[in-house]
Amino acid sequence: MKFSTIGWTGLAVAAASLLRGARAEGALNFCLGVKHADGSCKYTDDYLADFEALAPYSSVVRTYSTSDCNTLQYLMPALAQSSHNFQAIIGVWPTDDSHYALEKSALIQYLQQYGTDHVKGVTVGSEVLYRGDLTASELANRMNEVRQLLKDNGFNLPVGTADSWNLWVDGGSDPVIDASDFFMSNAFSYWQGQDTSNMTNSFLDDTMQAMGRIQARKGTSDISFYVGETGWPTGGPSYGSAVASTDVAAKFYKEALCGIRSWGVDIFYFEAFDEPWKGTDSGVEPYFGAMDSNRNLKFDLSC
Ligand SMILES: *[C@@H]1O[C@H](CO)[C@@H](O)[C@H](O)[C@H]1NC(C)=O
């Protein structure tokens, strides 16, 4: 099935048949930064406050590194202590070699210390193929290596990675599909310069293409698939016809993200909180939060 040739209504029908069966509404999960507004690293109390703010909307977050900012050292106790019973998909950064070695040892050290009750899975890398940091087979090897390391230490956790939707569609990524227990497809209509009339269609089309390609490769519609990152900046410059504003972010959320959630797909909103430390020189980067850096909600997250 080629989703790019059919309209939004057609997509809804296609998705309904792909996701046949009474699936609950897809969950709203969040990508979580590990730094304060000033760029210093968060501690356990900060993560506890993050969970408090996110709890009305969500119970799953994802992070990108085990050792940067000592993420697991401070996140794992927060996961264990929080009364909101959060789970995390924790990221291992696979480059460069010395960083990767640190990442693997922090992963095992803190899983041994805190267990896996609050860990839903492990990602190896984020947009590795998009940036060309590793080839698909190099990334697949590292994913298999992390899976084996987990097993060798008695942990049975699914291993996946997140990459841009078009990389999943690209047949060159098949070694990564084969090495994945779950899949995260990132799609930002903002970075495709889409205006409000086409941003929803574009997001749904991209995401369904990624899902369809993975299902075809795996030979089953029964895959564990997430939108790994999506969102819209509420400030900073426009990109093509895409305007960075709270109104457009709210509309993108309501139409595109509530749309895909209604088809049973879990999403990770990028991101939970604004990250002012990234600086205005980075354009829209500081402004992707669903909440500002003081944890105030910017727009309605109900569907
Ligand atoms: C609208 O989105 C569709 C699906 O991604 C895309 O094929 C088309 O080029 C977009 N239209 C414009 C004007 O960008």
Compact overview of the structure:
The chain is of the alpha/beta class. The protein is 39% helix and 14% strand.
Description:
- By secondary structure, this protein is α/β, with parallel strands linked by helices.
- It has a single domain (9-287), classed as TIM Barrel.
- Helices cover 39% and strands 14% of the residues.
- The chain is built from 10 helices and 8 strands.
- It has helices at residues 8-18, 44-54, 71-81, 97-114, 128-131, 136-152, 165-169, 174-178, 199-218, 246-262; strands at 28-31, 60-62, 87-92, 119-126, 159-164, 182-186, 225-230, 266-269.
- The chain has an 8-stranded parallel beta barrel with strand order 1-2-3-4-5-6-7-8, surrounded by 4 helices.
- Strand 2 (60-62), helix 3 and strand 3 (87-92) form a beta-alpha-beta unit.
- Helix 2 packs across helix 3.
- The chain is globular.
- Residues 1-10 have low confidence and may be disordered.
- Bound molecules: 2-acetamido-2-deoxy-beta-D-glucopyranose.
Supply the CATH class.
Alpha Beta
- The CATH homologous superfamily corresponds to Glycosidases
What gap, in angstroms, lies between the N and C termini? 28 Å
Strand content: 5-15%
Helix proportion range: 25-40%
Number of separate structural domains: 1
Question: Could you say which small molecules are bound to this protein?
Answer: 2-acetamido-2-deoxy-beta-D-glucopyranose
Residue-averaged pLDDT, rounded?
Answer: 94
Rounded to the nearest angstrom, the radius of gyration is 18 Å
Number of strands: 8
Residue stretches low in confidence (pLDDT < 50, at least 5 long) are: 1-10
